[in-house]
Amino acid sequence: MKIPSRALALVAASSLALTACSMDSTGSTPSGSAGVGAVGVDLPRADSDFWNAYARYIPEKATEAGVELATTTNSQNNIQTLISNVDSMVTQGAKAVVMAPQDTGAIGPKLDELAGKGIPVISVDTRPDNGKVYMVVRADNRAYGTKACEFLGEKLGGKGKVVEFQGSLSSINGRDRSEAFKECMDTKFPDITVFEEPTDWEGSKAQAALETRLATDPDIKGVYMQAGGVFLDPTLQLLKQRGLLVPPSDPRHIFIVSNDGIPQELDAIRKGEIDATVSQPADTYAGIALHWAKQAMSGTTPKEGPTEHGSNVIALPNGFEDQLPAPLVTKDNVDDPALWGNSANS
């Protein structure tokens, strides 16, 4: 199911004009609250083109939103480093924290500790399993898995073999994408064999797994990469070495669908090296996260329902989630100017 490009355009437009939150999406602001304070931002990793793009957008979107940035750190995919970084931010005076915890189970106690200190947390792209959050800013990750399944299932005519590079299953994103992909394949395409390959979001593990599968099952016809930012380059390198990096018109072509929407993926779609991706808006992730941080410091209570930036806020057991649209990108819409990957400074 594709999301109309005009919906994504609304998201992009709103991230350029992050002011007060719509009354459609938030409650009232208590009198006397000024929304003054600095926001600490922890970047989750530096080995992903997607997250590096997100990092570049942070200072730009902070300026547009009128948000003062405190410390910006990088936890390098390590939960203990994230906890240490957050402690340093608080010591240095951060009044709100934006993070993207890759281990969504282990961060819970630290979130509750921050909530007890009155420091709101906005979690980007990942939804903590427990622990209080003010807002989660992410797209529907189950939809990622379903869209990838439906695309590959149709391209393969419901038969054949597919390799799935699973993200870390300690992450809600890895679980959501993997579970939805499996459910869709089992239900809609039972004659497709799926090889589930754990990767912990590491490109080297994905490349090694694909190399092994091509040796044992040379008739692989599809690949689902749950994160193009880390899996794209090693996958294309291996296929090129094997003489399998050929256009869709060639019978040897292996159909590939990815997740992220980075410029490199869009270029690969244009070249016929991969066939589709689900675009996560790195620019809007940054802008909307800082927008909610500003709202949190102002004392605004989020409200369920549609927002002015084309998304939908839902209630969680431990907070709220702003669900942003993420379209499937193919050769048919790869040049859409509303896609963040077509305007990224990469």
Automatic annotation (TrEMBL):
It holds the Pfam family Peripla_BP_4. Keywords: Signal, Sugar transport, Transport. Transmembrane segments: none annotated. Residues 298-317 are annotated as: Disordered. GO terms for molecular function: carbohydrate binding. Residues 39-300 form the Periplasmic binding protein domain. Belongs to the bacterial solute-binding protein 2 family. This is Simple sugar transport system substrate-binding protein/ribose transport system substrate-binding protein.
